[in-house]
């Protein structure tokens, strides 16, 4: 059947998987830089600070920042400030 990933004679044939069309993002998310390059090159998903999983594949400078990610990032910066 078109769109099915499992072979008819495989033991996993009862569990069918459908391919999903991807949509370009509407905002720029904050992601830890460790592993971001490999996600971009290999086409794997990355998890942003707000919890959204996405495959990095477009230029982020042209998009507005995700407000949840920006708030959480600002909170991290506040935690890193030295206290006297």
Would you mind describing this structure in some detail?
InterPro entries: DUF3039. Residues 1-22 are annotated as: Disordered. Pfam families: DUF3039 (PF11238). This is DUF3039 domain-containing protein. The chain is mainly alpha-helical and 84 residues long. It has a domain at 36-80. Helix content is 25%, strand content 5%. It is built from 2 helices and 2 strands. It has helices at 36-42, 67-80; strands at 46-47, 53-54. It has a two-stranded antiparallel ribbon with strand order 1-2. Strand 1 (46-47) and strand 2 (53-54) form a beta hairpin. The N and C termini lie far apart (66 Å).
Topology:
Blueprint: H1 36-42, E1 46-47, E2 53-54, H2 67-80
Antiparallel strand pairs: 1-2
Secondary-structure element order, as H and E? HEEH
Strand line-up across the major sheet: 1-2
Q: Report the sheet-strand fraction.
A: under 5%
> Which whole number gives the mean pLDDT?
76
C-alpha end-to-end distance: 66 Å
Count of helical stretches: 2
Percent helix among the residues? 25-40%
Radius of gyration: 18 Å
Structural class: mainly alpha
Low-confidence stretches: 1-8
Biggest sheet architecture: 2 strands, antiparallel
The global form is globular
Tally of strands: 2
Organism: Kribbella antibiotica
Region (Disordered): 1-22
Protein name: DUF3039 domain-containing protein
Pfam family, one: DUF3039
């Amino acid at each position: 059947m078109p769109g099915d990933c499992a072979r008819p004679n495989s033991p996993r044939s009862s569990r069918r998987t459908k391919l999903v069309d991807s949509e370009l993002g509407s905002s720029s998310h904050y992601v830890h830089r460790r592993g971001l390059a490999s996600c971009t090159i290999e086409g794997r998903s990355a998890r942003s600070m707000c919890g959204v999983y996405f495959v990095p594949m477009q230029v982020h400078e042209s998009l507005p920042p995700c407000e949840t990610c920006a708030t959480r990032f600002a909170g991290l910066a506040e935690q890193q400030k030295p206290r006297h």
